[in-house]
Predict the structure.
Amino acid sequence: MTRPDPKRAQLEHEYSTALRDCVAGGGELALSHAYELGRMAAGTGIGVVELAAIHDNALKEVLGDAAPPDEVDQFFAEALSPYEMTHRGFREANERLESAVRELEAFSYSVSHDLRAPLRTISAFTQALAEDLRHQLDERSRDHLRRVLAAAARMSDLIDALLELSRISRSQLGRHRVDMSAIAVSVIEELRRRDVTRRLGATVAPDLIVEADGRLVRILFDNLIGNAWKFTAQVVSPHVEIGSILSDGEQVFFVRDNGAGFDMAFAERLFAPFQRLHSDRDYAGTGIGLATVRRIVERHGGRIWADSAPGAGATFYFTLPPA
């Protein structure tokens, strides 16, 4: 059984009183007081839709059968008009923003596709040169060609990451019950198979269940656990832990490692595309992974943040809808 919200109950009482004064002859002053109560309610987090329901209930309580239905409806519409105008303005602004974001994502997707053809040409001709002239090139020239191929491969990885970010932003969410524990174990096992020389200890809490898009949760863990794998490469006993804590009544999930860590002074750059806190020479990457993780979490209505210190590992916290 849900407990009544005391904030809403108090507002309903005060709203009813103000409207009763208006109907009883209080006029504009009483109605202005009702409007002011509405503005104060909006400032405390009560939304327009909920305020409309409160107003409707208050009108029914005050007017009851004493006024014709059309008069009640007119009174209700006039009283809500300032909030409806504000709501409409926010809605229209949000629609324009969403349209601009869609255009930007479509542009990013198109550019990424258009870059693939010349990149394939660069790689193919460089590889052909290296093969055809392998007996004529000195070591310095061969190194130059290797650098070209490595740069082309990195560019290809970057394009793949951008396309994935674009797809995640545009794809429809398929929400269902997802066992994140099983997904995390699968990601860790796959990383171990890719490089059997690496030894990564792992602790995965059981029954980490959410209501989310399973495909996107897999991408989320591919990136977060992949980061833990990458940044523990120089640690003697690398370890990653996946679990959850309860914070203010909310289940918060985390991925923790004992790797390189980072300076929290630069934390605000962490989830922005192309922002890297470590040198490419030390840790390879595209700079898109954590931006992708943030997009996935936010598309589910969740939050993500991190805690770390140089040389002390990193912990990424995030929330997702509970199952």
About this structure: The mean pLDDT is 76.
